[in-house]
Amino acid sequence: MGDVIDKIIRISGRNVNLCYQCGMCTAVCPMAEYMDVKPHQIIRMIQLGDERVVEVDAVWVCASCMACVDRCPRDVGPGIIFEAVRLVSLRKGIDKIDYRAIEDLEAAPTLAMVTASRKYTG
Amino acid sequence: MGNDKYLYFPGCSVKRDAKSYEKTAFDVFGKLGIWVKELDKWWCCGATFGLAVDDVARHLGSVRSLIQAEQEGAQYGTYKLLTLCPMCYNTLKRVNLLLKKDPGKLDNIRRYLRDENLDYKLSVEVVHVLPVLYENRDLIRKNIVRNGSGIRAAPYYGCTPLRPREVAVDNPEAPSIMHVVLESAGVHVVDFPFKTECCGAYVYAYNRKAVIGKSSMIILGAYKAGANVLVTVCPLCHYNLMLAYNSMKNKPSIKIIYLTELLAYLMGLDDNIPHDIKSFLDGLAPAGEGGK
Questions:
Q1: Which residues of chain B have pLDDT under 70?
Q2: Beta pairing class for B35-38 and B5-9
Q3: Domains and CATH numbers, chain A
Q4: What's the pTM value of the predicted model, to 2 decimals?
């Protein structure tokens, strides 16, 4: 396994090898229809050591709603692992949003700004 | 019931963007005789719980507020820390749970705080407003002064009061406590399939189309089930739902309101209810009851 995959596994604290690809996470994910790679497929990429997982757009569409984490029959916790994938980029200082590009920034309430800052900036 | 005592953590939203949520909540608490004391000092909870195992520093804001609650708890005789915002609830509750379950994390946090002579002894219990209102449902029923039979309210829980299940205020798959509170308040309760579906949360900043899609589905789901009021307890859900509603070409006749705004209205506590909500609810009153 490469460094990136090791890091994802280490900081997520989860065991991706428990996943048997049942697809429950994708079935219950409210954002799956907007994802390029579906939740169970992201987990499969990590199982196979595919470092391209850090380029997957879907981890940024994940809303951390915990629907998959609560229902995973193997307690893999996909939604927790996706945070680890995001952090691989964010901890290198690669931000995912540019505040100047957010439409109606002035109208966004504090809570929206704080949550987005926590999830999309390093 | 009615003699509960709580310390109160407000958080950013209810002080700026959801003022009527807090003000109507306090009007309702006052009427029900629920004693609520705002913390003398509080810190941003962080709004989202840090999920990585090595992200301990992200929990510090929440820990500082828990310590503040512990100190004030000794003074006021209650260690229950109440929140209105469910994102604050979720974050504070999960940090509290993490420290209770994981002594290593607690040690880590203690090392951060040692220089400040602060310690946390795990005595605080984080509580959301939903179960508090549920426990006081009989008292709510006794204090209703308006006829709410024209109001068809769809309770929308969203994510953070229910997931992960360790912090759920009710059965996370089939919650009913907001249903019961609304029933006690005399309105017609409309169950709908998306009551626990995510509104899209912070993703509005990255993929607005997805958030508008999700939130539109929730609004239309409630509307098609027969609701004329969609009831939320979350300022971020409220923002996303309004974003979706305002983007609709054909706007359904349904109003997105905070639970406590509706309760205050039904209890005749009108001072802090926004005008547009008051007039919308007046319009739903049965004939001869001050409405149409």
A1: 1-3, 288-292
A2: parallel
A3: 3-91 (1.10.1060.10), 97-122 (no CATH)
A4: 0.96
